[in-house]
Amino acid sequence: MAMFSVTNVDNLITDLDPMHTSNLIETLRTIPWFLDLKPQQIEALAAISSIVQYQEGETIFCEGDRVDNIYIILSGEIGVDIAVPSRGIVRITTAEPLDIIGWSKLTPVVRQRTASTIALKDSTLLVLNGDELNRLCEEDPRLGYVIMRRVANVVASNLLTIKLQLMDLILQSSRQTDIQTR
Predict the structure, then answer these.
(1) Apex 159 CA angle, 63 and 66, nearest 5
(2) Is residue 40 within 8 Å of residue 25, measured between CB atoms?
(3) Domains parsed from the chain with CATH numbers
């Protein structure tokens, strides 16, 4: 059996054989993010991807880690947490199947993870090598446009979620202040 490559993904090693590559292509074709892509673009993405299993309670990455990979949840649930001074760890969202985490790798400024992630259930993730994805996006502007348009939607959705959480936090804080001043 010929081996295509070995990919090191956050300390998990996955061997990619020809059968695994065809499974990756089929998996990529089922993800709405990639429905607009041509077969050769899907194949290029498969070449920089792997499928990784995480057990419940296992950390995928930590806030402050170097940004490297981008993840699409295929099954399971992933908690996304941030450290908030004087409040501790706060869950900002729960990522579910077809959600993306680690998207900040595609931004030119962010160099470290802005949140921590943990598997809340046994989970299967599609992992894309971030440097290689950036290279593909630069080499193929149509692919880059499709990917960045999808990332823009994720960022906008995350911003709205965090805005609503912040407003809720402010309301809770003002209620506590009102109670204490009575």
Answers:
(1) 25
(2) no
(3) 5-181 (2.60.120.10)
Give the CA radius of gyration of the chain.
Answer: 19
What DSSP string runs through 69-95?
EEEEEEES-EEEEEEETTTEEEEEEEE
Q: What number of other Cβ atoms are within 10 A of residue 130's Cβ?
A: 19
Sheet holding 69-75, edge to edge: 49-54, 123-129, 69-75, 100-101
Q: What angle do CA 59, 150, 58 make, to 5 degrees?
A: 5
Query: Are 100 and 108 contacting, i.e. CB atoms less than 8 angstroms apart?
Result: no
> What span, in angstroms and rounded, lies between the C-alpha atoms of 47 and 54?
21
Which residues, in sequence order, are CB contacts of 122 under 8 Å at separation 6+? 53, 54, 55, 56, 76
Residue 150 corresponds to which tokens in the numbers above?
Answer: 């999808």
Please, which pLDDT band fits residue 17 given cuts at 50, 70 and 90? low
Amino acid 46: pLDDT: 96
Model confidence at 1: pLDDT above 70: no
Q: What is the C-alpha separation between 152 and 155, in angstroms, rounded? A: 5
Tell if the pTM clears 0.90, that is, is over it. Answer: no
Cβ contact 80:114 at 8 Å: no
> pLDDT tens across 171-182, in order?
887 777 666 666
- The predicted pLDDT at position 8 comes to 37
